[in-house]
Amino acid sequence: MDQSELAELIEALRAHGADHLTCEVKRAKGGMPATLWESISAFANAGGGRVLLGIDEKSGFTVTGVDDPAAMEAQLGAVCSEMEPPVRAEIRTVVLDGKSVVLCAVPPIPRDQRPCHKRSLGPWAGSRIRVADGDRKLTDYEVAVLLANRTEPRNDLTPIPAASLDDLDPALVEAFLRRIRDTKGDIFRRVDDERALTMLNVLATYEGRVVPTLAGLLVFGFYPQTFEPQLDLTVVAYPTTAPGVLGGHGERFTENRSIDGPIPVIVAECIRVLKRNMRRRSIVSGIFRVDEWEYPEEVLREALVNALVHRDYSEFARGMQVQVEMYPDRLLIRNPGGLYGPVDVGSLGTTTVTSSRNRALLKILEDTPFGDGHMVCENRGTGIARMLVALGEAGMEPPRFTDDISSFAVEFPNHALLDEEALAWLTSLPLPPLSRSQMTALVMMRNGAVLTNSSYRTSTGVRDSRIATRELKELVDAGVVEQVGTRGSASYQLTPGRVPRDATTQGQLVAGGLTDNEARVLSALAGGSLSRAQLERVTGMTRAQVHHALRALRQKGRIELLGNQRARNSRWAAIG
Question: One GO MF term, please (predicted)?
């Protein structure tokens, strides 16, 4: 980072008004801050980040400098070496306004080596994670999840001593064995059913008795919840866009169900319940208009199976359920346990690399009939990619994935991305014929997104980074998209001035002299005060979009801030 880049970063911090997810600043006038290791641990346990020493946040991010930059660099290096595993940070000094600022670029630690912690405190007391502009101690469960990622979990192979073969549905088991013997060769034809089921990890021997494994019980059990009551799924449909805000008739929910049974039954019943709370709508797909559910059934099945199959089944997590929350503007599916193995959010849907903490369960389900002629899952690493393709074919916005160590969530916005208005806008651009992925990306950029090669692939279902690079370059060459940065740091956004102000989501004025984004924020606040983070979740808008909308609404006298702007618990409320 040179002087100009540092100056830009400081200006961005001033505009933001505080530290943020990937940057921590310290005045450090009296020496090395004693708690600096917490930020280093937090950045290393996430996507990395920067520490700046010699910047005073309290005085508006004034450059105060450090007295002895060489000594400060050495002390920073020592702190990084005291971490386990050691953090190999890039440390340097940049002179700005005649003062020395020490920069420490902390790289992310590989997922299978986390949690990065202070060696003298150990992983349970010495691990941190970044939340907004602060560092939070990891919970015991989060530490357990990360430590489990270093090993090969076998929780799905756990014998269930209280269960017996009589607790398995013979019809489901028979259909499973029939397919196995038809597709797996002679080996399973030469052994009896009990031996075959033991070889396939449906059964296991426990103290001289043959009993179902957890995986076998979850797939073929009459009622697995007899033995594990919380290994089920809950579905809650809310009447408004925020939980806790009552509907027009004073109702808290329009649906509140707990769905029990084996995994195939849970998936089928959950889809039925969701359809009962969904509407059908007309969607433009290519040159045709088709009637489709608000969320395509194929997408729902894939997301639900993923949540049930990839969730954490360790003792820590067996009291947690898979949760499905349906709002008027989005659908959220959350399961215990974050991503496992080398897979990260940015690579979801762009690679066929498979990584699961429940390999025996996955193996069983790939040969378990779902009831419609398909197997419950493919186990080929293509599920999320197919989900993205199905959403694209339905003209819908791609989902948002969130991995916060203790849980994984997928959120589907409830609106068509490529609707008639968006298609009319695309047609108005001076462009040659576009691919479906280019159309999706342009409309996302129009709605405020800034894409990278990775997020382009995640959002559009394009798997090959070379194809993504070529398609993005075509948009840049056409002049409608601009590239910021080069190579691995390149990002892409709509070229300023290329799109008429009244044609964009941010600029289009609606009733009351507000832009669409401002109206969405004001509508969300109609039900009560909300924090900025809650507004992001409720509206589905990005952090930057919410920030600009709040600033504009405050200038127009439509909202007020409750609390200090920098406080984490500050909230916004509508006026009048």
Answer: ATP binding
